[in-house]
Amino acid sequence: MEDYYSNVEIQKHYQELKSWDWNFGQTPYFTQTVDVLIDNQIVKIEITVKHGRIHDISNQSDTKYELITKLKEKWVSHTYDQVIKLLNHK
Fold it and tell me: Measured between alpha carbons, how far is 87 from 38 in angstroms, rounded to an integer?
């Protein structure tokens, strides 16, 4: 029986299944509401994600427009998994 780890075709598919594109890049459009600490304020925002990347950020609380603009500049086009890791480490 051939060793699966040395089979080129199996390795090719294995690498594809491990890739960011396979795990995150093909995800459907979705939104998530999260609380974020910005300038000593808790801000409720809605993150819109499309194909694993932050597509938009909208304000879900009485927050200054400038704070939401800062978030958009910082996070739009970044990958969802990167932003969630950042949020979970604060």
Answer: 11
Residue 64 · residue 40 · CB < 8 Å: no
One pLDDT digit (tens) per residue for the chain, 90 residues: 467 678 888 889 888 899 988 888 888 999 999 888 877 878 788 999 999 999 999 887 666 677 788 888 888 999 988 888 887 665
Question: DSSP of 30-60, one letter per residue?
Answer: EEEEEEEEETTEEEEEEEEEETTEEEEEEE-
CB 71 within 8 A of CB 63: no
Q: Are 60 and 45 in contact (CB under 8 A)?
A: yes
